[in-house]
Amino acid sequence: MNKFEIFGLRTIIEAINASKEISIVYLSNSSNKSSLFRSLINLLEEKNIKFSFVPKEKFKKYKDKNHQGAFAILSPVSIYSLDELISTTFTKDKHLTYLLLDGITDTRNFGSIIRTSLAAEISGIIISENNSAPINSDVIKTSSGAAFKIPIAKVNNLKDAIIHLSSLDIKIYSLSEKAERIIYNIDYNQSIGLILGSESKGISKGILKLSHDLIKIPISTQIDSLNVSVAFSAISMTPFRKSNSVNSSLLIRPSALRSYSSNTSNASFSSPK
């Protein structure tokens, strides 16, 4: 048996409840639709886990397994707790950047954000247990393998994570259309936590209240919004900090953008999930 495969309805349910990261669940389209089977379907939908109904022939090679018409592929990506992320990355001697995602459920956007995060040397990504894109094969593919190289933490409550980061003197910024300050007018010579939200709901009010400040990207009045992964690419290419080891020649400098900004509005981005 592949070490990333698990079989059986109850086993898969227990894996999900134990916060194991599941790439996809395959279900036989000829299975007896028992109450346990329906419970699994409900849980998959609730947790936004990808699943697919397949012909019973797909299960023939697993005839020696008690699969009950269901098997799951576990994600090979390691998931951190918040404490593990902080203990392995945080130091007061460097200016770090943590990315917090509030309600980003689209796997392609998530994968693109992970890829950009690695390029920009983001210290770690923090997502919530619920209402987040699963770390599945689509995310891994879109990230071009970056998901294996950058630490990703999953938390029960994003608010608690923000409070914890704040206690470490990490400045929390939310990218929001409600902001008055643009991204080029903040102090990057400090450790920061950057929060991104989805287009449909944006960043939740409770999280906005915990932010130290709101920031936005100046964009042309000829366009209403930017996709969340594009918006993050734009902000990640600003000089996060002078001590950042990323080659500064690759970064867009604020001075180079001022002439452009003078002809643009201070509109922010909106992002599809």
Describe the overall structure.
With 273 residues, the chain is of the alpha/beta class. It folds into 2 domains: 70 residues, 60s Ribosomal Protein L30, Chain: A (2-Layer Sandwich); 183 residues, SPOUT methyltransferase, trefoil knot domain (Alpha/beta knot), CATH 3.40.1280.10. Helix content is 30%, strand content 19%. The chain is built from 9 helices and 12 strands. It has an 8-stranded parallel β-sheet. The protein has a 4-stranded mixed β-sheet with strand order 1-4-2-3, with helices on one face. Helix 4 packs parallel to helix 8. The longest helix is centred in the middle third of the chain and has 13 residues. The radius of gyration is 21 Å and the shape is elongated. The C terminus is likely disordered.
